[in-house]
Amino acid sequence: PSSVSAAFQEYLQHLGLQDFPCGFGSWNKSRLHGRRSPWAEPAGLEEALPPGEETPEALLELLRDQHSPWALPPDCSPQDRLLREVAALAPELLHGSRVFQAVKSLRILDKGVEEVDEGLLRFQQLEELILSANSISRVTSAHLPQTLKVLELCCNAVDDLQDLCARPPPMLQHLGLGYNRLCGPSQEKHLTVDFWPNLVSLDLSFNSLTDLLELVSQLSTLQNLHILVLQGNPLALIPTYRGFLVDSLPKLSILDDIHIWPEEREQFHGLARQPELIRSEARVVVSIGEMNGLPNPEAFQQLEVGSEGPVITYSYYVTYEF
């Protein structure tokens, strides 16, 4: 599927919310006609059921028993279980478009999704959207439900935040953009309180951000930011990188998955007022130990005076890839 909506439809088919023991059918047809509520019968009165029908308890047992052919795999998400059980107990709640109202968390991982389409607006209660490991390069904020609190786009191809920041979800608390293609210095301007007033956690790891000063200038406006991940960017190679961030963002609690303790903050106190220590360069020292099996070039330079034999020279080079 190339869109989120198409991937969701595929997900619903996989869950089988309309198939036994979920949905409506001969196993609960009296409920379909409104003659019986799933909670109206006390447990144990199975003889009161019409022939061929199952109690809600029996349907749940088919879903929960790990030996049942209708059981979900042990590693399925809590939402998968919830939707399946609701579809068994009260299938009318998930009938037709009502299923969009029941979904608060949507996880579509590694499905080749390229487009965040406007079909997402049907999820009027959606709080968490996880779209990691797809092929998304642009996210149009007008297609995102305004109820979102978590947006995870890790391992995609996002290289520009302008469309995402046109009308972003105002209540968003976590934005995950790790392992994408964001490059400085044009993207930092989109990471301010004007766009993300309630942001608590931000993951920008493993992109191509280089301007630490400009990035910190924008991030300092995020008054609720407590968790920040920047490792894997070129700017993280700067020797004073961690100390400068710790001192520049006093409300930060965790940087690159490492907790910031008061002792560390005291150690780096005052570093934010010394931007001259931040250089846009890095030095890498490589030491090569002993190499065997390579002729020493110097041994072939000691030729006798007047020698007329052919001269054989050896030279070597080493390449480093970053």
From TrEMBL:
Q: Under the cellular component aspect of Gene Ontology, which terms does the record hold?
A: cytoplasm
Q: Signal peptide location in the record? A: none
Q: Which PROSITE patterns match?
A: LRR (PS51450)
What does the UniProt keyword field contain? Answer: Leucine-rich repeat, Repeat
InterPro entries noted in UniProt: Leu-rich_rpt, LRR_dom_sf
Q: Which residues form a coiled coil?
A: none
> Out of the domains of life, which is the source?
Eukaryota
* Keyword Metal-binding attributed: no
Question: Can you name this protein?
Answer: LRC43 protein
